[in-house]
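We append the chain.
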Amino acid sequence: MSKMALLLSRMWPSSLFLFIILVWLPYVTHAQSNSTLDPILDFCSRWFSSSVVKGNTLFINGGIETFYDSGLTSDPILGINTYLIKVFMASSWDWKTNITITDEVKPTNPKTGTLPPSLIRGTMFQGPANVSEVFVFGGTTFRGNQSFVGYTPPDANTYPLWSYTYDPSVQSPNQWNQYDLLQPWRPNHGAAAEAVDQNLGFYLNGQIDKGTSPETLHMGNDTTHLDGMLVIDLSNQSAKNISTATITGGGPRVGGALEYIAPVGNKGILVALGGQLSPISSKSNATTGTLLGFDTVDVFDIDSYLQNPDSSGLWYAQSTAGDIPAPRIDFCTVSVSALDNSSHHIYLYGGHDPVQSVNFDDVYVLSLPAFKWTRVNFGKSPRWGHDCHLVGNRQMITLGGNTTNEQCDWESKGVAILDLSTITWGSVYDAYAPQYLVPTAIVSWLGGSPSGGAKIKSPIVGYNNTGLAIVFNTTRTLPSSPANSPSPVTPPSPATPSQSQTATAQHSSHVGVIVGLVISVVAILAILTGLLLWFRSRKRRKAMAPRELDSTEKTEYDIHKHHYELPGIRDKPAELGEQHGHSEAPWEPTTYAVELPGTNVVPGGNPGIPLVRTPSSSKGSQDHFLHE
C-alpha cells in the first residue's frame, strides 16, 4: 500500500477509505499500467479499426494506432489499440470541447484463456435488438511492430466471432464470449453489412494473410483472397458461406463496401461497391491487383436466398451514371432514405488507390433507384482506412483514418461530423438534428423536394436485368419505428420535495455531517485526479524532436514508391473548415438529449438499417504499414 493510502486509512473511517479505493484507485492503476499506451489520452492517429453504434453508444475496437507520449520517447509509438473504446451518443457534443470518450481493458475469457481480439480490418455488428451485446467479427493481427507492449501473435482461426456484453446489469458469466462458426478461416479486409431487423450479418469475400493465424505465418507479404459471402445468423451465432461466382469481376474482392437498403425488395437488398480484385486462391499484392470501377455496382436480393437457403441467391450487376468516382478502396459508406422512401442514398467518403498512389478527400452520393452518382464535396485532406456511421437523423460520424502525410490526426479526438443534408463538415454531433432531407444538389436532377417525391424511379441508363426491376418495384412493409432504437434521453425535471422528505430532512442533521465529510473526500480526490491529468497533459504538450526512421521501420513504411515518414513535430490541428470543402457546421451550445436510431429509419417512415462496413486496407499484408 502507498504512503498516501496509509495516511488516508488513518485519517478516515474504514468505509470512507474503502470508498476512496473503489473510486480513485482503479483510475490510478489504469493510468499507471497503461500510461504510454492509452488510446484516448495518448491518441495520435488510428486506422483500420472496427466499430458499431448500438443504443446510446458508439463502440470502437482494435485498429493500428500511433501513440504520443513524450514521457518515454520523443518519437511516435506505432502499435495497436488494445482497449474497447466507447463514445457517448445520447446527447449532443462538440469533439473540441465536451465529447465523452471512455475505454476499458479487455479481460481474458476464463473459458478458453484467450484475450478478446484487438485486430485490424475486421468489422462489428449490432446483433439482435433484444440483447445487450455487440459482436466483433474477423480481422488480422497487426505485425508491423512486434516489440509493442500490447502485441500478441496471431491466434487460431477457431473463433472468428466474439460478443461483448455492454450492459452491466445483465447477468453473464463472461463479458466477452467467443463462437466457432465452423468456417475454415477468419477473414479480414472484406465488406460487411447488417440487416438488424432480420438478425443477419453479411461478410463479402475478404482475404487471409500472415496475421490471420499461426498456420499462415509463412505467407510473408502475400495475401489470398476468399470467395463467397458469409451469412451470419447473430441470434444463434451460426454462419453459412454462399457462392459469389456471378459477382462483377469474376473473382473475390477486398477493400470495398457493402450497404443494406431495407425498403427495397421483399427482404431488402445489399449493394456492393468498389474493391480490389484478385483471382481465387492466388497470391497478390496491393500494387498489382485490379481496382473495380464505380460505373457498375452489384445488387444482392436477400429474399432470393432466404426463400431457398440451399441456393446462393441472386446477384444483379447494374450500370451507373453521373459523376462516377475514381476507382479506390478503403473508403467508408453510409446509407439513408428519403422520408417517403422514394429514393435511397449511399454516401461514399475518402479512400485511396494503392496502384496509382492516389488518396482522396471527397464525398459522392449514389442515389437509387436512379443509380446516379453526384459529387457533393471535395477537400484537400485525404483519408483512408476509416469507419463511418449514420448517427442522429442526418449526420455521418467518421472515425480515424490514415491521413497519409501527417504525424498525428488533426481531428484530435479521431472523429468528425458531416451533415448529410447540407453537406457541411463540423465538430458538433447534434442529437436533436432535424430529419434527413435530400441535398439540393441531388434534388436538382432527381426531382421532387428534399422531403421526397423523387421523379426518377428507375436507372438513368435503364435496368441491366428485368429481375432487378422487379426487386425495386416490390414494396416492403416495415415497422413504423425501428425496434433497435433506444428511448430518448430527456433532461430531468426539477423535483418537488414531498412531505415525508421534508420531515425526514428535519431529523437528519447527523447525516449532514457524514455528507460533508464525504464531500471533502470527493474534493480531495478531484484535486488528486486533476493533478494527475495536468501532469499527463503537460507531458503530452512537449514538442517531439524529429528523427530518422531505423531500418526496420523503413521496411514497414517504404514498401511502394511513396514513402511515409512520421514528421517529428506535432502541429496544432487545423479547423475542420480549412480541411474540407465547406465551412464548419454552426454550433448550438445547448446540449440536448435524443433517441439515437440504431438503423437508417428516421421518424416519419424512413426504414432501413445502415451498417457501414469497417473499411480495411486493400494493401492487406502488403500495405506499407503492415509489413514486417
Q: What stands out?
A: The mean pLDDT is 77. The longest strand covers residues 362-368. The two ends are 42 Å apart (CA to CA). The chain has one domain: 33-489+594-622.
